[in-house]
Predict the structure.
Amino acid sequence: MARLKLGGGWETISGPRLGGAHGSVDDAASYSIKGQFSGATVFVTGASGYIGSVVLEQLLRTTDVGAVYLLMRARRGTDPQDRVKQLLGSSLFHLVRDRPSVVAKVKAVQGDIQQPGLGLSAADRNRLSRTVNFIVHCAADIRLEPSIQETLQANFEGSRSVLELAASCAHLRSLVHVSSCFVNVNRPRSSVVAEQLYPLKFGEQVVDAEDVAHELMSLPSGDADMRATVYMKRWRFPNTYTLGKHLTEHLVAKYQSRLQLPVAIVRPSLVSAIAGAPFPGYAGNWAGCIGAGAAMAIGLFDCLGSVASHPLGVWDIVPADLVGSAIIASAAAVASGAAAAISRATGSGLSYRGGRASGGGSAVPHALTHEQRGGGSAVAGSTATAACGGGGGAGGGGSGGAAGGRWLRSGKVYFPGGCASISEDTAMSGSRGSCFASDGSASDAGDASPRGLGLGGSPAALPGRVGSAGAAAAAAAAAAAAAAGGGGRVLLIVHAATSSTYPLTLMEGWNYNLEFFAAHPPPFSITPGCLPRMTDAFTPHDGRVMACRTWTGWKVWLICSLLRMFGKQREAHKLEVGFDTFCVHNNSKTDRDLTFSTRALVELEARLAPAERRDFLLVWRPMPEGCSEAVRAGALAAVGGDMCWRRYCHTQMAGIYRMLYHASPPAVAPMRYAVGGGGLPADLARAAADAAEAVASGDARAKKQLPASLVNHVVCHDFVCIR
């Protein structure tokens, strides 16, 4: 009988290296996005949201995908397929919406991530299980401060439903869970956050994330919020969103290890406007830096004292098209098998252990089983292990299967020394073995400990709280495949971020936006006059921030009252919601100045087929690596000799201007790159500058003649409103 490989196949990294330009790349571990997605069937959640829609557009435009199923709710009497038509008719899809053969690939599946089993009908679930090759899970409740049960229901339980669907897919090649860089916002200020899992602890005891979520979901709503506040204070999470997403990542890691699912976690930072194709400046929602730019435009920042963050703190914003490319590339890398090489090279996906990444002997950083003190029973092995007749640990310390004990249904079993979460078809074994804490030590974990205790010389396997015979069968099949292949699958974690490749500070972003407002004064602002430039001498002060917020709140109330008097209820509601969102985001508790490591992202870029790199921009840099002299000259022409961030921020503000005022700002003549500068031939530099001017003027023919890498790698100052 097959037995699930304990430890999830993670390997100990003795000396991680940075790939790409900084290390060698094994050609055998390269991958092709277009090759992996050709003819494939993809299931996407959250496609009506910003990130999900960008992923969908890129799939349709850059790959020959076979079919794409979108999880859609029936909203306000609108049929899900009609919502898909509305989505594909938006300006984001202007390059593909007039191609019937492409549009026909997209089909709606009615469901909801907040419903059990995603709210799928039996027929839809069966169809997805038989046909889906890739799952991209983008759906989430992105509100920062909902009640803890609301965020867990959508993000934690919704992800569980996606994972269970993935376990039932007969031809699954990869699942990408879209998370956030800020799941680890609780790291010490100015830390470098690795592409790894960070455990939660009570003192030295590692905490089971699923137990925390289960507790919070089981309490009355008011008690759950109070308990969540205690956890947020203890673990330094600024809001329920980041706590819930952190817990969710560990749920994903548990399922990946237990069922050997092909999984990648992609963590975007602050997702901003699109930098390149399908057109620069497109912004799909008001979250993050897009909302901050809008707040500056309409006057919610009424003075420098209203800013809650430090000027030299890292402002890690990332263009949305880079995020979409990172998600698609991660899916392809996992499907091709390149993820294992990326993990070996970078340490991505391992468990963080206070300065070292643990692998090999440690399954995941969470305790999931507990041994009874005083010579009683122990939960032995995972759901799959028990179902396949293997109840003990890797060392064989326990007898497994039905013969080793009695079968129990899903639920909690309480022992004198703690409680064990068990799933359907999990066996209780009467054997005992050595106790191992989840950090790999053999020390006693203490009474009622949340640390994982294993049997027979190996850390414990990972039983799921919710299981099924289908999941057990999937685990058995995965274990057999892993054994045949000589090892288990890795969990790939990728940061889609810019702070470690081309960092931007808050001060720079603020001042670049002011430059845009100087050229294009907003037609409406609740604060007259111009905001001052920010310098590194500025120091935020919570008292001043609160005073400014109170004064601005009175202005918002007065303006909303006047708007309602004139029948502008919708505009008044938008302004009120915008102010409330501004108050949540502009807060010193989220000012952590974190740098997010992108070693796996750089390795993804290095291993991608060279012919595809121009279509999938992954790493944000001042200049594309390995580009031709013509492209380099064009890039310099497009940014006018300035840093890319300045040009990008101006372009993003143009997109925000369009969203706010439903009009495009007048086109600005691009700054010409100095002819002959930088050691380039004068004729080449002049031709590149002329091409950049043609792009900025909206000359569609000239734009089509430009190298694709110029359009995709460089933000062109193109303010043409595409409808």
The longest strand covers residues 67-72. The chain has 23 helices and 20 strands. The chain has three domains: 29-269+316-351+486-499+594-621, 282-313+504-593+639-677, 679-722. The two ends are 59 Å apart (CA to CA).
